[in-house]
Hints:
Elements: H1 2-11, H2 37-48, E1 69-70, E2 76-80, H3 85-90, H4 97-108, E3 117-120, H5 134-151, E4 155-159, H6 160-168, H7 174-177, E5 182-184, E6 187-192, H8 195-200, H9 205-220
Parallel strand pairs: 2-3, 2-4, 4-6
Antiparallel strand pairs: 1-3, 5-6
Helix pairs in contact: 2-5
Bound molecules: uracil (URA).
Amino acid sequence: MIVEHLRFAAELGVAGVSRDPAWRARAGDTVPLLRSGAEALAALKADIGPDCSRCKLHTLGRRQVVFGVGNPEASLMFVGEAPGADEDIQGVPFVGRAGQLLTKIIEAIDLKREDVYIANVIKCRPPQNRNPEQDEVETCEPFLFQQIDMIKPKVVVALGTFAARALLRTLDPISRLRGRVYEYRGAKLIPTFHPAYLLRNPSSKREVWEDMKLVKSLLGSEK
Ligand code: URA
């Protein structure tokens, strides 16, 4: 019976069998089974490709896809809006002035940048840092959702109105959304002000500190 089965498979072009889990992945799978966070993220990055042309931003002057950076097994993940000029040049999210402030925010809760994972809702720089448009978000956000599912963080911090709206599917502004904990894809989601907003409105750092204390307590709690 099994011999007939194998003969039939051979006629269909199956050249052999293997116990290697990777062998079970089908062409087109973006999240093959039994992969570590790092392997899954690398596969997703390769799937997006260095020259992604899925939305119009590839024709509007972006230099490169800014995938995400950090610990693939992170308990804490930050989600921003879109790469800016510095990120577009370096290929790494949050490396400009707002990024330096984000690094300080991370260090304020006794973590290092390498401990967390940082990504954006959209992976390419919009021209003149304009707001991402609906079609760009719809095309790109599934990649962020996959990143979250691969990393499985305990806490996700949405930085600014744009990220909070994209993740929570709401039109409410960040000022209304922050100060509460939301359930999100198996994680706790904390919306807070974007570091670029804090550069313009330093008095709001107080609220961000409150939000980060909440993040820290959630990271330390059992569930
Ligand atoms: N602002 C963002 O939202 N993301 C970045 O990567 C940089 C600035």
